[in-house]
Write a structure and sequence with these properties.
The structure holds 2 protein chains of 2 kinds. Helix content of chain A is 23%, strand content 24%. Chain A has 15 helices and 32 strands. The longest helix of chain A has 26 residues. Chain B is of the alpha+beta class. The chains are: A alpha+beta, B alpha+beta.
Chain lengths: 765, 159
């Protein structure tokens, strides 16, 4: 639970900053800039002890023996845990809620399927003692050959994922008959979310009740997993996650290190803190799977697409399943009468890959948005023009109208701001001294994922307002936009609203992922606040003690925390005065967006699994956010170094609840996209199947010096089919299309088409 | 417990602290685990990310690469000690105004670096700010807004 002292308006915004759509500064900002914001694992608990993990150094095989005696004898050590010492845990259901197999769960492994798998743990009085003792543990293995990555000769073609197949028309025949044909393979490597706050937790048991302080994108989902592991009722597990130091998809699920810490806490009867080391964050959970795609396009001489044939492969782990949907953008971005997309997954000795910003759409767009650029050059048409010629007027796959699609506006606005018209099409035709200049364009999209949420809104005796929800804020601005929603709906200043998030005791919310939370929770808070306002006005009219009672008004107006009659002919009192006058210390209303008649079971399923999310093509419309990126690169002709020097992106996320915060998220997505295009790649040691650059000095994420000024422009309009207040998705969208825009710009600069990310200098010289 | 603790006297944000620590305890862990000063963040524990940046005698230092015992007798300033008499430091205010952060986890380190960057005279241009702030990673990608905030605070300091 979190209480923010004070909210700050942006001085330039005027009073409207506080309403939905205003540029209110983050209400959690003062706590974050002063160091007062206490993140999950920063709780200071009495009796806290520290756990450190020991991981496998082989990628495949079996643990033969674990020598623990020296560690057990080391100063301060309370317990050494091995695969054999954790007994009695049960396998939990997956995030779809699929009933789990009835078998034990072993968070420490004896059978090894990837390098970095947790094998042992040491718990000691201090962090330093635990680290020192962990180094004394010796593990011997029976090693077997590993499949180190997609390129491994043993990897094979993988397993077809039939659910990913999308086909209409006769794509192979239409391709064979097309006058212009292009075919290319596009590869993306393993990439890592690398949030600045490492994963970790503090677990504490009180009898059979477990409290977990853990950075989480999904309190109720993680609580469900802990409850199932430890065979305790869901209600007995409390997740607390007041601030989250970045997630990008990686903090949605409870992970094996959480089971180890919670088990140790129960065993020792003391709160246990366990935080992954930075290297462990590369194997303690999965990053984005490496992918391979081939895109073939058949077109007419005028650039009109006649056929797209797409084949994709992503890696998954030996015993887990991750599908990175590679045909998601391919199948909707352009109109085509013939289409075929299929996908396989290939098992390799890796931790199971996971969600990373725009899973599926991101690599999918890299394929199709590079391929259309290649087609543009093949037929001699401007890369922007060819996108407009093949513009999809409706969803070509679902064959439904777009709810809203401001992509034409994005192309037009972005092109104008960027100055696209001045581009000379020929590669290597623009330069500045020894720097080759390239201008590239690409589009992006992300579906509008919708779900349901609950909130409580309370009007307190002093006229202030409380909002509670078990949803979270990892930087997207949930605290702020929910304060704005409650303030606008109730007619109170935003700084009189206190938003409390990040505690599973609060009204429930589903996963914060897929850019769904803002739409879900503004809807729930709007509903709860409307209900609270109705109660307030109803009491003001009907309660005999109310000064408005004699007025016989049908309704009253609440603005700036005061209540008055619409005509201004009656009393004008503050909310606090009214409540005191009618003898109430609070008005409370809950609101949820669940369908009427939902059962308790429906609700549990909705909040603890993703199985009840609404399809983005439900009903008459296909709902997506859209964007167009215009990017300038400068390539050193001698050294092949690529620098992004200018970015203009125009984006359609529908209505923005707070443009100041949305712009920050967009820019963040673009910056992560620059990293993906030029820097980021998990490098596998082929002898041992290890990620060798498992740290922030060797796995390169963008630094401040890598990033130019970025201009983002909102071209969205309110989309009533996507959410209660008209917004679509923000957080995932902007990364989609950045890497292809950069690859296309590099081609324009150099004449070299790099189809393997990242675009590093050795690929250019 | 070990019998190798030493007595360490620390001056943090103008307050004196006497601690009994093992010599291997870093300044970062002393701040976070022993003194409850959790504003200084641990992002990598290897001097790669900058989240743990504090000032030692006014210079920016990575607390994860500094042993607590090394800063005896030296003035340590953390994010909690930056505000003066309840007033946020101009760099803090600029970060809020420019929305120079999202998740907030790298923010204390960014702000401590920014204060030093300005004081060092390395905030003369956007290019210079980008270079001298490049040791502080931000995965949310707030860099353009961080540059704006540092520029704003530097201009305020100069005026």
């Amino acid at each position: 639970m979190t209480v923010h002292i004070k909210s700050h308006g942006d001085a330039s915004d005027g009073a409207f900053a506080e309403a939905v759509g205003g540029r209110l500064s983050r209400v959690d900002g003062p706590a974050k800039i002063t160091g007062a914001a206490r993140y999950a694992v920063e709780q200071q608990l009495d009796g806290l002890v520290h756990a450190v993990l020991v991981d496998s150094t082989i990628a495949a095989g079996r643990v033969r023996a674990i020598e623990t005696a020296r560690a057990e004898a080391a100063p301060g050590v309370l317990k050494v845990l091995t695969p054999d010492s954790i007994v009695g845990l049960r396998t939990a259901s997956d995030w779809f809620g699929t009933p789990p197999p009835d078998k034990p769960y072993f968070p420490l492994a004896r059978d090894i399927t990837f390098s970095g798998q947790h094998v042992a743990a040491v718990v000691a009085e201090t962090f330093e003692q635990a680290v020192a003792a962990a180094a004394l543990i010796e593990i011997s293995y029976d090693e077997t050959p590993a499949i180190v990555d997609l390129n491994d000769a043993k990897a094979g073609d993988g397993i077809p994922v039939d659910a990913m197949t999308k086909e209409w028309g006769d794509a192979p025949a239409a391709f064979a008959a097309a006058p212009v044909r292009i075919c290319a393979a596009y590869n993306t490597p393993r990439e890592y979310q690398a949030p600045m706050e490492p994963h970790g937790l503090i677990a504490r048991w009180e009898d059979d009740r477990l409290t977990v302080w853990e950075p989480s994108q999904w309190l109720d989902g993680m609580a469900r997993t802990y409850a199932e592991w430890f065979s305790v009722p869901f209600e007995n597990v409390r997740l607390v996650s007041p601030y989250i130091g970045g997630g990008f998809g990686s903090k949605a699920l409870a992970l094996s290190h959480g089971a180890v810490a919670a088990y140790a806490a129960r065993m020792l009867g003391r709160p246990v803190k366990l935080v992954l080391t930075r290297p462990q964050t590369f194997t303690g959970y999965g990053g984005r799977a490496a992918t391979r795609q081939t895109v073939t396009i058949g077109a007419a001489q005028d650039g009109l697409i006649q056929s797209i044939v797409h084949r994709g492969v992503n890696e998954t782990s030996i015993d887990g399943m991750w599908v990175e949907p590679l045909g998601s953008v391919t199948s909707i971005m352009y109109a085509t009468p013939n289409f075929s997309s299929r996908q396989n997954v290939v098992r390799v000795n890796s931790v199971v890959p996971g969600a990373m910003r725009a899973p599926g759409e991101n690599p999918s767009a890299f394929g199709i948005e590079c391929a259309i650029d290649e087609l543009a050059y093949e037929v001699g048409i401007d890369p922007l023009e060819i996108r407009l010629r093949n513009y999809a007027e409706q969803d070509p796959h679902a064959r439904k109208a777009w709810s809203t699609r401001q992509l034409r506006e994005a192309f037009a606005t972005g092109a104008e701001r960027f100055g696209w018209a001045a581009r000379t099409p020929k590669p290597r035709s623009m330069r500045d001294g020894n720097q080759l200049i390239g201008w590239g364009v690409a589009a992006g999209t992300y579906p509008v994922r919708r779900a349901h949420g609950e909130a409580i809104v309370r009007i307190l005796a002093d006229g202030s307002v409380e909002v509670e929800s078990s949803s979270i804020d990892m930087g997207q601005g949930t605290y702020t936009i929910l304060a704005q929603t409650a303030a606008e709906t109730l007619g109170v200043p935003a700084d009189s609203v206190v938003v409390k998030l990040g505690d599973s005791r609060f009204p429930r919310a589903g996963v914060t992922g897929g850019s769904r939370l803002a739409g879900v929770m503004t809807g729930a808070v709007y509903k709860a606040a409307t209900s609270a306002l109705d109660q307030l006005v109803g009491l003001a009219i009907s309660d005999p003690r109310s000064p408005f009672h004699a007025l016989q008004a049908n309704t009253l107006v609440v603005a700036n925390g005061r209540i008055a009659s619409p005509r201004g002919d009656g009393p004008d009192v503050s909310i606090a005065e009214l409540l005191s006058g009618i003898g109430l210390d609070r008005i409370e209303a809950s609101g949820d967006t669940m369908p009427a008649n939902s059962t308790a079971e429906d609700r549990y399923k909705n909040y603890t699994t993703i199985s009840m999310a609404l399809p983005h093509t439900e009903g008459d419309y296909s709902r997506h956010s859209w964007c167009a990126h215009f990017i300038e690169v400068r390539v050193d002709e001698d050294f092949g170094t690529v620098r992004v020097s200018r970015v203009v992106s125009a984006l359609d996320s529908g209505r923005l609840y707070n443009p100041k915060l949305a712009e920050s998220q967009w820019k963040g997505g673009i910056i992560m996209g620059i990293g993906q295009a030029l820097l980021e790649e998990g490098i596998v040691d082929r002898r041992h199947g290890r990620i060798v650059n498992n740290n922030l000095a060797d796995y390169l994420v963008p630094t401040n010096a890598d990033i130019p000024d970025i201009e983002v422009i909102s071209v969205g309009i309110p989309d009533p089919h996507s959410s209660a207040l008209g917004g679509k998705g923000v957080g995932e969208l902007a990364i989609v299309g950045v890497a292809p825009a950069i690859a296309n710009a590099v081609f324009h600069a150099t004449g070299k088409r790099i189809r393997d990310l990242p675009i590093t200098l050795e690929k250019l010289i | 417990m070990t019998n190798t603790t030493i007595s360490v006297h620390l001056d943090i944000n103008g307050r004196h602290h006497d601690l009994a620590l093992e010599p291997r305890v870093t300044l970062l862990d002393a701040l976070r685990d022993r003194l409850g000063l959790t504003g200084t963040k641990k992002g990598c524990d290897h001097g790669q990310c900058g989240a743990c940046t504090v000032h030692v005698d006014g210079e920016r230092v990575l607390a994860c690469l500094t042993l607590a015992a090394q800063v005896e007798g030296r003035a340590v300033t953390t994010i909690e000690g930056l505000a003066r008499e309840g007033e946020t430091h101009p760099v803090q205010a600029a970060f809020l105004e420019q929305d120079a952060f999202q998740c907030g986890y790298c923010t204390p380190g960014q702000i401590m670096s920014a204060v030093a960057c300005i004081r060092e005279g390395h905030a003369g241009s956007d290019e210079e700010i980008r270079e001298y702030m490049a040791g502080n990673l931000c995965r949310c990608g707030a860099y353009p807004h961080i540059v704006s905030a540092v520029r704003q605070a530097a201009q305020e300091a100069a005026s």
